[in-house]
Amino acid sequence: TKLDHIRNFSIVAHIDHGKSTLADRLIQACGAIEARDMKEQILDSMDIERERGITIKAQTVRLSYTAKDGKTYQLNLMDTPGHVDFAYEVSRSLAACEGSLLVVDASQGVEAQTLANVYHALDAGHEVVPVLNKIDLPAAEPERIKQQIEDVIGLDTTDAVMISAKTGLGIGDVLEALVTRLPAPEGDESAPLQALLVDSWYDPYLGVIILVRIKHGVLKKGQKIRMMATGIAYQVDSVGYFTPKIVQCNELKPGEMGFFTAAIKAVADTKVGDTVTDDKKPAETPLPGFKPSVPVVWCGLFPIDAADYEDLRDSLAKLRLNDASFQYEPETSAALGFGFRCGFLGLLHLEIIQERLEREFNLDLITTAPSVVYRVHLTNGEMHELHNPADMPDPARIDHMEEPWIKATIMVPDEYLGPVLTLCTDRRGQQIDLTYAGQRAMAVYKLPLNEVVFDFYDRLKSISRGYASFDYEVDSYAESDLVKVSILVNAEPVDALSFVVHKANAESRGRGICQRLKELIPRQMFQIAIQAAIGGRIVARESISALRKDVTAKCYGGDATRKKKLLEKQKEGKKRMRQFGKVEIPQSAFLAALKMG
Ligand code: GTP
């Protein structure tokens, strides 16, 4: 049966095109929240999300809208993250809806993540309504951008909605479009319960909260339910939805989205994509799930003060409670002591976790250079996944190695295309496609992921003056001629600085890192030699001459406050140093080591 009074939708957009602003406007227009209660961007609930203006965790909001046809509709808005690292969370949110609003900034046009996200939505079978935002801007060119959407994406834009999420212009049209253009969900109330587990997180008051989309049947308070993948049964304690405030109710019916709690101990006990069914009257088959997200980028996290190890372990466990895509395992480094090897969905995910550990949990950390997961095939036929270059087996035992490749889509204005193509080629990229839409080029490349974690974003942004946009998906593994480069400081290998790289680039990367370390490691009382080696062969060498470090020397004794400030800075910096042998290596060296200047 059609559930004509419900519409489930998400908003897909490139970062900064106004998704959160539009979501807030819709919430406000439906009267779910008083204007004075509007904090900037309601849906981005975590502090870091708000500060960085990015959406990480998918959230859902139920709105009540009385349309021009006089009927009152239940609109369920699923928020989706906009950043490439979280593509997996996008697809699972989309699986819970029937339609999407495609928001495109009318002054910017289609960007790489517009494309990636709209294709996810079309793959999920969504009806997509194009929405041109920011038409209040003098630079807005809605007609040109409409044409671009037709040319690049192939979506009919005749009925595209023109809005300004900032001023509120056109918000009513968006609401009408949702009701008239998106399909109503379908579902059978009398069938056995089938609910899609969309997300779960830990709430300090309510415990583990499970976000679901009911496909068939009814989910009631007090019901005994079973998770089909894990087979574990629970008693439902409470049922409700968000407006975005929490509202408790007695049941959720087909087509609806909401949450339940059931005395579940850990988020890890809930599997996103799983089907929730009735324990006594279970459904015969689960709903189609999603592929689990796997960390593709790994790095070491070490406490600067060894006494913080236990705190770090507890903090990681807490973060993991709410982020099943984040993984960690203990790691010991000769250079850095006891720490953890941590796996992330991408570089942004890494930065976010690192920042939260330092800020929320007040930990001083050393982060080692990120590495991808290599597959090492040994001569004895075994295969190992290598998360840490320091664990690379003796080359004599290795038959061959494989590295992960990605398929990247880059959109860039014509005038910057040349340098972008050069960058892709330098990074061992293989061109798949190159097309134009107006003044913008769209290049599709296959690239080794390890070349992308080498500061690819930063380079891309700087050579295109910030105009290029980038999106990728992990593609496949391929055999590759890889070697491990070790970095030696005063003849001692610093395990945390070693890295795996394609043989053809090993020497130049090794040299680059030695040069970088020369700038980053402060001069000390003795000479320091920095070397890069492949096996026993030294491929690069730099030295830092001995000098007494005196940051106040250039102040000519005059300005006492400036002197004091510098000394404080130095003390602060010192906290972030790592004594290695006799040499102090600053934190920045570990992360910057792999960034080519
Ligand atoms: P993420 O949450 O990072 O995915 O970004 P987003 O797509 O949600 O963008 P957001 O809503 O945060 O908007 C980005 C910027 O554009 C903010 O500074 C908004 O104030 C601004 N903005 C959004 N809509 C409009 C609009 O209609 N007109 C103008 N002039 N600015 C807008």
Automatic annotation (TrEMBL):
GO terms for biological process: positive regulation of translation. PROSITE patterns: G_TR_1, G_TR_2. GTP binds at D16, H17, G18, K19, S20, T21, N133, K134, I135, D136. Its main location: membrane. It is found in: Cell membrane. The keyword Translocase does not apply. Pfam families: EFG_C, GTP_EFTU, GTP_EFTU_D2, LepA_C. The keyword Membrane applies. GO terms for molecular function: GTP binding; GTPase activity; guanosine tetraphosphate binding; ribosome binding; translation elongation factor activity. It is a peripheral membrane protein. Residues 4-186 form the Tr-type G domain. It comes from the Bacteria. Its EC number is 3.6.5.n1. It catalyses: GTP + H2O = GDP + phosphate + H(+). It is an enzyme of class 3 (hydrolase). InterPro entries: EF-4, EFG_III/V, EFG_V-like, EFTu-like_2, G_TR_CS, LepA_C_sf, LepA_CTD, LepA_IV. Keywords: Cell membrane, Elongation factor, GTP-binding, Hydrolase, Membrane, Nucleotide-binding, Protein biosynthesis. Transmembrane segments: none annotated. GO terms for cellular component: plasma membrane. CDD domains: EF4_II, EF4_III, LepA, lepA_C. Belongs to the GTP-binding elongation factor family. LepA subfamily. Belongs to the TRAFAC class translation factor GTPase superfamily. Classic translation factor GTPase family. LepA subfamily. Required for accurate and efficient protein synthesis under certain stress conditions. May act as a fidelity factor of the translation reaction, by catalyzing a one-codon backward translocation of tRNAs on improperly translocated ribosomes. Back-translocation proceeds from a post-translocation (POST) complex to a pre-translocation (PRE) complex, thus giving elongation factor G a second chance to translocate the tRNAs correctly. Binds to ribosomes in a GTP-dependent manner. This is Elongation factor 4.
